[in-house]
Structures
1.
Amino acid sequence: MQILNYTPEHEAFRKRLRAFIAREVTPNVAQWEKDGIEPRDIWQKMGRGGFLCTDLDPAYGGLGGDFLYSIIVTEELSYSFHTGLAAGLHSDVVVPYISAFGNDAQRKKYLPGCISGDIITAIAMTEPGAGSDLAGMSTTAQQEGDEVVINGSKTFISNGINADLVIVAAKDTAVENPYQALSLYIVETGTPGFERGRHLDKMGWRSQDTAELFFSRCRIPIANRLGEKGQGFLMLMQKLQQERLVCAVGAVTAAERIVEWVIDYCKNTTVCGRPLSKPQANQFALVEMATDVKLGRAFMEKLVADHMEGHEIIIETSMAKYWTTEMARRVADRAMDLVGNEATLEKYPITRAWRDVRVMSIFAGTNEVMKGIAAKFMGL
Ligand SMILES: Cc1cc2nc3c(=O)[nH]c(=O)nc-3n(C[C@H](O)[C@H](O)[C@H](O)COP(=O)(O)OP(=O)(O)OC[C@H]3O[C@@H](n4cnc5c(N)ncnc54)[C@H](O)[C@@H]3O)c2cc1C
C-alpha cells in the first residue's frame, strides 16, 4: 500500500541521507549518548549535505522541497535507532516559525544559517510551572523603547546547550487575557541576560542536549519579535500540528525498526534447540507487533498526505500523536520481553530504543492533552 508519492528525486535524497547517516552518525552514537550532546559539526555536516530545512527557498540556500523531504529526514534518523540529532525539531518545528511569521529582514538574517547548520535553533515554551498549560507561562517580555526586556526561566528545552537562537514564548503582563498576552521572540544566545542552566540528565534521547534556560533582564531589539504582538498563542497553535505529525512519523518509524530488528533476532537466536521465532506464542506476538506498525504507518501516511493538501486534521493529528507513541512503547516493551536478558544490555540498540520511545508520549504535548484536544474538537 503506497499512500505517499515519492519521486525518483525523493528516493535519491533518501539514499544519499541513509549513506550519510551510516558514515557520520551511526559510528558516533554511542559516544554522543555518553556525552549527552552532539558536536556542533554534525549539524554543519547535515547542513552542507542539504539535509536541514529542506523546504526552504533556494534563495536562502534551501532545497525548496515539499514536506516529503522532511518526512524522509525524520524517518531515516529514526530508522537508524538514533533520536539525538533533533533535525526534525530544528527544520520542521522551530525554523518554520521564522519562515512563516518572520519578516524579510529576519528571514534574510537567520534562514541561510539555519539551512547550513551554522545556526542551531530551539523553541522555549515549557517552564518549571507551565508544561501542558501554555497559558500558565510566567516568563515576561516588557517593551522599553525600541527594546524588549525578557525575564523568566524555561526548562526541558531541546538543543538548549547547542542552540544559537531560541524562539521564546513570553507574555506581556499588562494584558489580562493570557491567550492574548503571549508573543514570540527571537533571542540570540549571546545576548547579555541569557544564560543556560543545567544540562538535563535524561533517561531517553540522551544525546539530545535538553536544558534549562534563564532570562534575566535580557534585552533584545523589538525587531526580534516574530509577527504581531499578542499573536504568540495563535502562532503556536498553527505550528503545533506539524510538530505532532513529525512526532508520529518518528514513532512509527522507530516501531518499524524495532519490529524488524526483533524479528531478525528471533529468527537467528536459538533457545532449547529451535529459533525464538518458532514457538506459537512468539509468532503471535511478532504478528501483532507487525500489525501495529502497519496500522500506524497507514494512519500516519494518510495524515501526511492530508497535511500536504492543507486539510484541517487537528483531531486526527492528536489521535495519531498519542496512538503511534503508545504503539511504539507497546512494541518496544514486547520486543524486550521476547529478547530476554540480552535486551537489557547497552550493546543492543533495542535497549536505547526502548528508553527513547518511552519519552515520546510526554513531549510535544502529553498524550492525555492530545486526547483532550481530540475530545474538544469532536464536540464531546
Ligand atoms: C525530552 C524532552 C524534550 C522536550 N523539549 C521541549 C522543547 O524543546 N521546548 C519546550 O518548550 N518544551 C519541551 N519539552 C517539554 C514538554 O513539551 C513538556 O514536558 C510537556 O508539554 C508536558 O509538560 P509537563 O511535563 O510539565 O507536564 P504537566 O503539564 O505538568 O502535566 C503533568 C501530568 O498531567 C497531565 N495533564 C496536564 N494537563 C492536562 C489536561 N488538560 N488534561 C489531562 N491531563 C493533563 C499530563 O498529561 C501529565 O500526565 C520537552 C520534554 C522532554 C521530556
Note: The pocket of flavin-adenine dinucleotide is lined by residues 122-126, 131-133, 156-158, 202, 205, 210, 359, 362-363, 365-366, 368-369, 372 (CB under 6 Å).
2.
Amino acid sequence: MLIDEIVAHSREEDPNECCGLVGGANGAATTVYRARNEFESPLRYNVHPEDLLRITTEIEDRGEELAAIYHSHTASEAYPSQTDINLARNWPDPVYLICSLAAPEPEVRGFAIRDGGVEEVELVVD
Ligand SMILES: [Zn+2]
C-alpha cells in the first residue's frame, strides 16, 4: 500500500524529514518515488533538484501524472507548517501528503495548499 511505503520512508529518515513524489493515473495514486531531502533537516525539506528532474521524467515516461508530494514531520502533527505553505506557492497543483511520527501511531493526511490557504483532502486508500 502506498501509505505504508511513505510511513516506511519516514521512519528510515527519522529524525530528519523525508520527502518524495507520488505518481498517479486516472485520478488514482499508483507509485511512490522516494527523493532525497536537499536540506537533510528535521525541520524542513526540499525535494533534491536532481531527484526532482529524474522522477518527473520517469513519471512522464510511464504515462503517469504527478499526483502528490509527500514529506514527513518527525516531531510535529500532520499539518502544513508556514514553511510548507510558502513552498507550495510555486507548485499549487499536487496534493501535499504529510506523514507525522509525533504520536506512537504514524498518521498520514493530505492537503490542497493554494494561495496560502490549506484545505484537507480525503485520502482514498486502496
Ligand atoms: Zn512540513
Note: Strands lie at 19-25, 28-35, 65-73, 95-100, 107-114, 117-121.
